[in-house]
Design a protein that fits this description.
This protein has about 220 residues and is an alpha+beta fold. The protein has two domains: about 1-135, Muramoyl-pentapeptide Carboxypeptidase, domain 2; about 140-225, Orthogonal Bundle (Muramoyl-pentapeptide Carboxypeptidase, domain 1), CATH 1.10.101. It has helices spanning about 35-40, 50-65, 100-115, 155-165, 180-195, 205-215; strands spanning about 1-5, 15-20, 45-50, 70, 95, 120, 130-135. Bound molecules: zinc ion. Zinc ion (ZN) binds near residues 88 and 93.
Length: about 220
């Protein structure tokens, strides 16, 4: 049984679902994405995504009109294989088509690009044996990555930030996607300890420090699931 937090980027609503591994992901239509497919090899008891990412998947799968196998969507930051600020950690990215032919992948890539429902579809030259598409949102704090977060922010990027902070020993008093007082204090304490501007705002420099410290550390006793 997985706890799944779904964020709606349009109206700021966060919803929590409990689903078996064999059940569909929330907002998936047509049974085209099970919880176990979304999580891939991730061991996380808690998963997160956005309604918009699921809608983009539904549109793409519907337009392709045939099964699209995929290996995973979700990763926690220490689970490997990605850079510092991958959209897979935010649960809004899908790597698909590993067992298809290159012609089939080309068709999926074309459909995903032409639909215009994704924030980013990686050029096939960079992913020759799969298709990466993600529904990133907002303006990234660095040239790539996540948005600037502050008190009152909500969403999957807040979940990534809270995950990092807790794992480094700075308690956010929960993993809920809401940047409240405890998250603000945690950011300030983290910034103070690492010589960053102690403003309680998670921008580019704070993101870089947070993610680089967490990556490779592995799950710790302070991680919240
Ligand atoms: Zn990917």
């Amino acid at each position: 049984m997985a706890k799944i937090i779904v964020y709606n980027t349009s109206n700021g609503v966060l919803e929590t679902f409990w689903r078996e591994e064999s059940e569909n992901m929330p907002y998936n239509t047509g049974g085209t994405m099970k919880v176990r497919e979304f999580r891939g090899s991730s061991n996380s008891p808690t998963l997160w995504t956005t309604r918009q990412a699921m809608q983009s998947w539904n549109s793409t799968r519907s337009a392709y009109n045939a099964p699209i196998p995929f290996r995973y969507a979700f990763k926690r930051i220490w689970e490997g294989g990605h850079g510092l600020m991958s959209q897979h950690y935010a649960g809004v990215s899908f790597d698909v088509g590993q067992s298809l032919t290159s012609a089939q992948r080309q068709r999926i890539h074309t459909i995903a690009t032409d639909l215009g429902v994704w924030g980013y579809v990686e050029p096939l030259s960079l992913t020759p044996t799969w298709v990466h598409m993600d529904r990133r949102y907002g303006t990234p704090a660095c040239s790539t990555g996540y948005t600037t977060l502050r008190r009152g922010s909500k969403g999957v990027y807040v979940l990534v930030m809270q995950d990092c902070l807790n794992t480094l020993g700075y308690s956010t008093a929960g993993l809920d996607g809401i940047f409240g007082a405890a998250s603000e204090t945690a950011v300030k304490n983290f910034q103070g300890d690492y010589g960053l501007t102690r403003d309680g705002i998670c921008g580019c420099a704070t993101w870089n420090k947070l993610t680089s410290l967490v990556k490779g550390n592995g799950k710790t006793s302070t991680t919240i699931n």
